[in-house]
Amino acid sequence: MNALNKTPLRSLVLALSAILALTNASCAEQQNDLPNILFIAVDDLNDWVVPYGGHSQTLTPNLERLADSGLRFTNAHCQAPLCGPSRASIFTGLLPSTTGLYLHVNDDKVISGSQSNPAPELLTHVLQRHGYETLGAGKLLHQGAGGGLLQDYGGHKDFGPYPEKHMNYEGERTSTDWGAYPDRNDQMPDHAVANYAIKALSEKRDGPFFLGVGINRPHVPWHVPQEWFDKFDLDSIELPPYRADDWDDLPEISKIIHNAPPTPSAEWLIENGKWKEMVLAYLACVAYADYEIGRVLDALEASDYADNAIVILWSDHGYHLGEKNVVTKMTLWEESTRVPLLIAGPGIPKNTVCERPVGLIDLYPTLLDYSDIEISDTLDGRTLRPLIEDPDAKWEHPAITIWGRNNTAIRDERYRYIRYEDGSEELYDRSKDPNEFNNLASNPEYTPVKERLAVHIPENQALVSPVTYHRWNPYWIEVTRKAEESAE
Ligand SMILES: [Ca+2]
Ligand SMILES: [Ca+2]
Q: Per the structure, how many domains does the chain have?
């Protein structure tokens, strides 16, 4: 290269460098404006929290405080009524019917085991690509945060510590039990999860961050220190609604799928005089979880990020405490699909309720929307921002819950419609029957309602992925066996 050409080239390089420097500066500036994200997952938390009114005696002052400071979706539902597939759906932004991840899945296989094309990208990975620091502790994906979910993971995905033997309930294939144990809150894994978050919030962070806080309680075993049991009076505990003949109008496949032998039934609880005790134990665990969440919210309020953080609190699915004669999740009924979903932060209206049916699957695109990241049209959910800005906005999307291939529940503002793999159905008019006692599916008057809702059932549901598994009852053991066989 000769000297004559050197000067113009050098000028060009200098000019390009200046442009790049300006671009970088504006990127950095933009990144500083991006909201931080505090993503609080609570395991197996149903609507028994004050902002949702599911149980009149529940004590959740911190969830109440969070609900008052933002917006609560009162008709929010999980996409699978079990930890593993629900969380896989949240972090991939895809329905189980797209990925084939209908059942439990190891964190490391959420991407590789998905049947979707293109392969999913985890929410946290998209955020990372756009400059977010990702960190967290506790239960986020099913085993915590495997599969490289986060850049920094503090551990403590843990349902212990466990007493030497079960205190009140014995059952194979379930850790269902309850009782006051251990002695102190600081022996609980959730205390360490909250401590991790408190420390993270006290530190100076260079750019926007995603902080995941995965609270393990009220997942079984319902063991928390005595102080939480002492907050409730056993004699006056209110029991959930239940009808002994409730299953008489269910199709056979519903009885097979929802058969939950490892956990107590309402019948068993009544016979053994244990129902109030068990309800109290769940309430004790919810109150304890609320306390740990409150510690994190306090830390956020005292931090540099108080005015620039979106807080999202969700549960991975609900839980029956005897309603419809079951004590578990894993059903296509309201107690199992409905979840608390609270959102607060800059620009989000305070003390506001949105009754539109939404799904946890909508969190992925919603967070991308608030972080100014383009939303891929391969995602199955949609941003909730229009509803956050106007909770009464028109919204014609029901919530979808899938429990195994081709067993699908569709929930709109009034009805719950369930169609099973063999074509049999359930339909509940929740405006008249909030406990879902009366299956209207065989009443011809409701044919137009069923047809209207059936349109929303995903067609051509993906085959059950061979990496997904669940060995709860004979139906699920067979589903798992067939899926594993398909890989051979
Ligand atoms: Ca769960
Ligand atoms: Ca019934």
A: 1
